[in-house]
Amino acid sequence: MVGIEIVEPAEIPVIDFQTLSTGTPQERKTALKQLDDAFQSAGLIHLSNHSIGQDLVDEAFAWSKRFFDLPDAVKELVRHPYDAHDHRGWAAAGTTVSSQGVWDQEDIERIHKTGPVERRENFETGDPYPSKVPNPHFIRNRILPEEIFPGFEAFTKRWWDACVEQELQLLRYLCEILDIPDKDLLGKQQNPHFNRSATGWNHYLSVPAQYLTSGESTRLNAHTDYGQLTLLFQDTTGGLEVKDDEAGVFRPVLPRPGMVIVQVADMLERQSNGRWKSALHRVTIPHHLKHSDPGDGTLIERYSIGFFIQPDFDLVIKPLPGCEAKGRWSSLEWEDEITAGEWLTRRVALEYQQKGSSKSAA
């Protein structure tokens, strides 16, 4: 059996969105400093009183459970094509393998063939509105027909609108922290029809705990997110962990009901020139079970929803104005000239390397 190291939970700052948006000048200054410090050290925060609202979040989790409860034969109707250029649809458990800093083709193939099985199924949806102009980068969502899954497509529009509104507000505050004269600079990189922003609906299967403690399986391998920012909503099950680089350990990120996790992703780390840290994270056995012997027990299923914020597909990812000085973080190696679309496609291709020949996750 693989030993389970017990560590204390991560101390993730809580930032009040209402303070950021409507606080006094001094209150806003303090909150922005806390946000900057957190992104420089851990790469993530808990955001309270966010603009999306708990009622909509609860509705999103209800839709997620309803979708994943459908028979696999039905979900196959919207199956992910395992194409890095068409990242939409449902992927069965055991299909994807997340990795970090592994680029060699043979190493990737070996990880997919012999590494732990990720006991997670996922469903990816993007911009629900048809592009009104010719656009080679637009990806059509794979949504079940209304007669099979009534109401879901309409919900994805309300969800998308709320997440995009929250995203743009946060990006404006990041420009304020960086003292960029145009506070909408990052927001102007966010034409939803020309980027690959997406919602990732995740269902972690209920499995015997020994599958994870033995090293035979995992829930989600350690990785950084690919885009600019991630809005991450998790249920109360637990299991999310973030890397503490100073201590050299992964620390549990305990669920905080009513809050959303906001974490830095690869492209924003690059745009800040290493000032902000792309948070390396994974999903494993929940913290409270690590303090007891999970033995032959069963891990209950877990749900999470991530809204992955991507800049425009053709945007070259380079340091923003005022970020010329190199910061301390460099999670991954970057080429001098690479676009958001090239980076995203490269990382998605690694995740779906085996293209349909996945190991069993039964």
TrEMBL record:
Protein's GO biological process: small molecule biosynthetic process
Residue ranges of every copy of the Fe2OG dioxygenase domain listed in the record: 200-311
One Pfam family named in its UniProt record: 2OG-FeII_Oxy
GO MF term (any one): metal ion binding
Keywords per UniProt: Iron, Metal-binding, Oxidoreductase
Family under the similarity heading: Belongs to the iron/ascorbate-dependent oxidoreductase family.
Protein name: Sexual differentiation process protein isp7
Source species of the chain: Aspergillus vadensis (strain CBS 113365 / IMI 142717 / IBT 24658)
